[in-house]
Every structure is written in structure tokens, then in C-alpha cells.
Amino acid sequence: MHVVYESDSQFVLRIIRGEELVEEVLSFCNEKRIDAAWISGLGACDKTELSYYDLEKKEYLKKVIDEECELLNLTGNIAFVDGERMMHAHVTLGRPDYSTIGGHLHSMQISATGEVHITKLDAKFERKLDEETGLMLLKGE
Ligand code: ZN
Questions:
Q1: Is residue 29 within 8 Å of 118, Cβ to Cβ?
Q2: I want to staple 116 with a disulfide (CB 3.0 to 4.6 A). Which of 13, 43, 84, 125 is the partner?
Q3: Contact 80, 139 (CB under 8 A)
């Protein structure tokens, strides 16, 4: 991973071919002690693990997309869960026939490049279990 741009609150990273995007972003946020952030990204990937959250069953239905796709959009954030930073992100992937597929991101292997913009927020985000949805939701004041 290369740091392309860095200021007090803004960072642009280039994730290198073969690297796993979530790991790279998390390790960067741990290193920089980024306690709350909003993230966007684009690029290309060749193995992505996604899921869809079934609200009724309260479980993630996982799917591995084992093919070359464009990462059309990644939107995510950084927050703490039980004292550890966690990235929550959703992605839209583009296939060679221009159809799209997307979901909640678990992992993504970059094939060509991953371009990630991180906006550090002056806060510490935390997630707590919400009994009604079964999800770890952002905690409000
Ligand atoms: Zn999600």
C-alpha cells in the first residue's frame, strides 16, 4: 500500500495488486490512530467476499465473487467494536457485461489498483449490539 496524499484529516491510499483492501485500510487506521472516519474508494478486484444481511433471520448470507470486477464504489466507515477498530463498508462491483453486483464487504483482493480516500473525523465512533436488528450499530450520544 502506498500513501499518495496525507494531511491532518485526509488520506489517499493506493492499494497494490494482490493486497487485501480491508486489512490494508485497517492497519493504516491503527497505525495513524484514526478513531472515526468516512471512507470512499474505487479500483479493480478479483476476489471479493460479500454478504447480504437477512434482517428476519438476523444473519449474514455470504457470497464469494471469484472473478475480475471493477470496484465501482466503496463507501464505508471506521468505528470501534469491543475496543478494536472495525471497517464497515458496502461495495458495488461492475462485471465485464456492465452488470453490477454489490453488498456488505468482508474482504477484497485488489487486481489492478485500489484508490481509497479516508476522511478522519474528530471523534471516536463506537458500535454496540442493537437487539432489535441483531446488528452492531453506531452509537449515538
Ligand atoms: Zn453492512
A1: yes
A2: 13
A3: no
Q: Which residues contact 94 (CB under 8 A, 6 or more apart)?
A: 69, 70, 72, 100
Whether the CB-CB separation of 12 and 117 falls below 8 Å is answered with yes
End-to-end Cα separation, the chain, in angstroms: 35
C-alpha 52 to ligand 1 mean position (Å): 8
Look at the block and give the residue holding cell 453486483. Answer: 101
For residue 88, how far is its CA from the centre of ligand 1 (angstroms)?
6
**What is the pLDDT, as a whole number, of residue 141?**
60
Which residues of the chain have a pLDDT value below 70? 141
DSSP state of 138: E
For residue 15, the CA-to-ligand 1 centroid distance in Å is: 21
- Give 86 Cα–ligand 1 centroid separation in angstroms: 12
> By CB neighbour count within 10 A (0-12 exposed, 13-18 middle, 19+ buried), where does 20 fall?
middle
Q: For the segment 70-87, what is each residue's pLDDT rounded down to a tens digit?
A: 999 999 999 999 999 999
